[in-house]
Amino acid sequence: MPRARTVGLNSTLCWVLVIAPLIVMGCTPPEVRDAAFKVEIQAFLEEYLPALGAAYAQSDPYQIKPYVASKEIARVGKRLEELAARGQVYAPTVRTITIESVTVWNNSNAWVSTVEIWDVQRSAAGTGLFIGESLDQPHRVKYRMKRGDKGWRVFYRMIVE
Fold this sequence. Notes:
The protein is α+β, with helices and mostly antiparallel strands. It has a single domain, classed as Nuclear Transport Factor 2, Chain: A. About 40% of the residues lie in helices and about 40% in strands. A hairpin with a 2-residue loop joins strand 3 and strand 4. The longest helix has 28 residues.
């Protein structure tokens, strides 16, 4: 039994002392580096997308401020204004996020392609009366992301299909 624990500690130490610094310095094969970034980006999207849904549900683009660049806040704000002009509020809920591809360059920029499944409820602005819902909507989404001191941020998000 102690042998198994030693092996686990050795692999953890190897990761901390060898592999992680190599990734930071960019000295690993692209497949290993991109796999590590994919894990980080998946965790980021699992935080960001519920905040995006809350921004739509509350008609407040600043809900996503910790996760995006200012241009993306403006883009979501414009979309919320369009919905308000039509008298509608959307309350989207992300169900699944599947990363299809990650391309990272300079260890701080990324193009990410995802398939996201959303449930969307529509209600009347002001009254909150239920208008309808669309369940299990699949969307292929492209992201342009940048990594900084506080982690990844979305610079651009576009629904492709």
